């Protein structure tokens, strides 16, 4: 486990479930970099922020936690479910001391029973797992694709507010883009109400400000 429980008391949590060192050694640098870039963006945009507040924001930045089996993942979730930011999970990993072909699906089912709208990625080297992932309303990523890390980065940018805020509507039509807080406030007066209602209903605004 990468972070201890006391250190995460006031932080949002990105839960990564992966038992292969080959893959989590690729995911972790990407996740850490994305978190640091997001924190820097927020701090840089508030020029008059006092130093204490900057320190608090840095300490409260999202934390990445790694689980390599079902029990570890469940323990992290039950401890931090009020602060969960997203779940990125493999499908096949140990459960009950035995490698399970469906452990990831079982984990998502459990978590979704308590947080139905938690942004979730199911990644697997078995393309046949895609249909089940879509049934669970999760993003599926093929671990064999050369664009693996880019797909993870895109998911983070779109679902966790890490990057520009793109004003859209329920049909996916794009209206405008805000690159910082000042632009965001300006665009609120320009984009259609239906776009604002869409993002408010999906909790996108609060995610972007985290």
List the helices and strands and how they pair.
Elements: E1 13-17, H1 21-45, H2 51-59, E2 63-67, H3 70-80, E3 84-90, E4 93-95, E5 98-100, H4 103-112, E6 120-124, H5 130-135, E7 139-142, H6 148-159, E8 165-168, E9 174-178, H7 181-188, H8 193-201, H9 204-209
Parallel strand pairs: 1-2, 1-3, 3-6, 6-7
Antiparallel strand pairs: 4-5, 8-9
Helix pairs in contact: 1-6, 3-4
Features:
210 residues, alpha/beta, Rossmann fold, 2 domains, 5-stranded parallel sheet, two-stranded antiparallel sheet, globular
Task: Sum this structure up briefly.
With 210 residues, this protein is α/β, with parallel strands linked by helices. It is built from 9 helices and 9 strands. The two termini are 23 Å apart.
Structure report:
By secondary structure, the protein is of the alpha/beta class. It has 2 domains: 6-159, 3-Layer(aba) Sandwich (Rossmann fold), CATH 3.40.50; 165-209, no CATH class. It contains 9 helices and 9 strands. It has helices at residues 21-45, 51-59, 70-80, 103-112, 130-135, 148-159, 181-188, 193-201, 204-209, and strands spanning 13-17, 63-67, 84-90, 93-95, 98-100, 120-124, 139-142, 165-168, 174-178. The strands form 3 sheets. It has a 5-stranded parallel β-sheet with strand order 2-1-3-6-7, with helices on both faces. Strand 4 (93-95) and strand 5 form a beta hairpin. Helix 3 (70-80) runs parallel beside helix 4. The two termini are 23 Å apart. Mean pLDDT is 80; it is low at 1-10.
